[in-house]
Amino acid sequence: MYSILLFLHSLGRWAVLGGLLYGMSRAYQGWFGRKPFTPHDNTTRHTVATIAHVQLMLGYALYFVSPLLRDFHLRDAVHEPGTLFFGVQHVAAMTVAIIVLTIGSALAKRQSTSEVQFRTMALWFTAALLLILLAIPWPFSPFASRPYFRLPH
Q1: Residues 58, 7: contact at Cβ < 8 Å?
Q2: What's the CA gap between 8 and 88, in Å, rounded?
Q3: CA distances, 138 to each of 14, 135, 141 (Å)
Q4: 115: helix, strand or coil
Q5: Who contacts 67 (Cβ-Cβ below 8 Å, separation ≥6)?
Q6: Digit-coded pLDDT (tens) for 11-31
Q7: Rg (CA), the chain
Q8: Measured between alpha carbons, how far is 55 from 12 in angstroms, rounded to an integer?
Q9: Structural contact between residues 12 and 150, judged by C-beta atoms closer than 8 angstroms
Q10: Residue 72 pLDDT more than 80?
């Protein structure tokens, strides 16, 4: 089960990033182009938030079955940067990022004009993306290096 969750979570990263970039593209184009907020934009807003929530749930499931975190204790993790990253920093930053994204999505849905809807979506999705980019264990990360894709084994 662990390797399947790890594979799905690794794949989900790209779905979240792609969805956020697409959603931000629509939001910035709509905001600066003074376009109407269409049903497609609303579906994009909702779909990006849904994909992010699924990814977060996969991450939580992975957190609880990960051999890396099976015997996690914060006092010991201070000496193990990878364990500290996945045990505290990654899960906390990703949770905050999805909360930010969710708030932005909910606020954008409730705005009265297209311009404010797009602006709200653009700014909150951008903040969420920045948090996500900081918390991903990229291959070049000094905190915890992981490959771009994890295959099930």
Answers
A1: no
A2: 21
A3: 12, 9, 5
A4: helix
A5: 2
A6: 999 999 999 999 999 999 999
A7: 17
A8: 6
A9: no
A10: no
